[in-house]
């Protein structure tokens, strides 16, 4: 049985790949259902139906709904980090790094709506503690901390290299404001709206640039 985000145990007769595919379908179903109707309102029966499996089969992969939430959240967070955070280029200038991080963050939110909304359900610290097992909670918090530390460090570098510009609050506070703004783009975004995803991302960078006097 597997109930973490690390993948299925090795089993004979080629069943490993089939088990992995079933597990991924369950994670995708969890992200879609938790994101659209909430964790508490989603039943194991609904998860099984959405993944195309019998309800008892879920327990071959996850011991509880909380473990499904944990695995789905880590899966989504790891994907976000792979595409947004880990693509940062430390050799680039601080301004370009921040601009690229903001644009990638916004576009990721707009292109992965269900992933982003599922993560929103557990971003609150109290929700994380209540819903996620201890190990998963620690892993998710560490991923969030890495992202926040990266943005904080870049803003601090910008502040030190541009001493003549208007003073700003503490870099950590500025970083929290930037991340919150990017995270919440889905609160108003409409796919059929007047602005493209790229235009929205560019507009968000202009807002960040103005806020930081860059």
List key phrases describing it.
214 residues, mainly alpha, Arc Repressor Mutant, subunit A, Tetracycline Repressor, domain 2, 2 domains, 0% strand, elongated, disordered N terminus
Give the low-pLDDT segments: 1-13
For the report, how would you describe the main beta sheet? none
Tell me the fraction of residues in β-strands, as a range: under 5%
Helix share of residues?
A: 55-70%
Whole-number radius of gyration?
19 Å
The level-1 CATH class of the largest domain: Mainly Alpha
Distance between the termini: 52 Å
- Total domain count: 2
CATH architecture of the largest domain: Orthogonal Bundle
State the secondary-structure class: mainly alpha
Describe what this molecule looks like in 3D.
The protein has nine helices and no strands. The chain starts with 14 loop residues before the first helix and ends with a helix. The protein is elongated, with a radius of gyration of 19 Å. It has 214 residues and is mainly α.
At a glance:
By secondary structure, this protein is mainly α. It has nine helices and no strands. The protein has two domains: 15-66, Arc Repressor Mutant, subunit A (Orthogonal Bundle), CATH 1.10.10; 68-211, Tetracycline Repressor, domain 2 (Orthogonal Bundle).
Question: What are the SSEs and their pairings?
Answer:
Layout: H1 15-37, H2 44-51, H3 65-85, H4 94-111, H5 113-120, H6 125-131, H7 134-161, H8 171-183, H9 197-211
Helix pairs in contact: 1-2, 1-3, 1-5, 3-4, 3-5, 3-7, 4-7, 4-8, 4-9, 7-8
């Amino acid at each position: 049985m597997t109930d973490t985000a690390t993948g299925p145990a090795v089993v004979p007769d080629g069943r490993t790949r089939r088990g992995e595919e079933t597990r991924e379908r369950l994670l995708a179903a969890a992200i879609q259902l938790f994101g659209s109707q909430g964790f508490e309102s989603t039943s194991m029966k609904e998860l099984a139906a959405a993944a195309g499996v019998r309800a008892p089969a879920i327990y071959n992969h996850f011991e509880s709904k909380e473990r499904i939430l944990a695995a789905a959240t880590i899966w989504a967070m790891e994907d976000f980090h792979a595409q947004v955070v880990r693509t940062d280029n430390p050799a680039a200038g601080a301004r370009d790094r921040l601009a690229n991080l903001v644009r990638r963050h916004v576009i990721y939110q707009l292109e992965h709506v269900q992933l982003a909304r599922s993560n929103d359900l557990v971003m609150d610290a109290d929700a994380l503690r209540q819903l996620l097992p201890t190990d998963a909670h620690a892993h998710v918090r560490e991923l969030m901390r890495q992202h926040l530390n990266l943005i904080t460090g870049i803003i601090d570098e910008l502040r030190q290299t541009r001493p003549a510009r208007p003073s700003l609050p503490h870099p950590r506070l500025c970083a929290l404001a930037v991340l919150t703004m990017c995270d919440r783009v889905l609160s108003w975004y409409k796919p059929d709206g007047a602005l493209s995803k790229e235009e929205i991302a560019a507009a968000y960078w202009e807002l960040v640039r103005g806020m930081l006097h860059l």
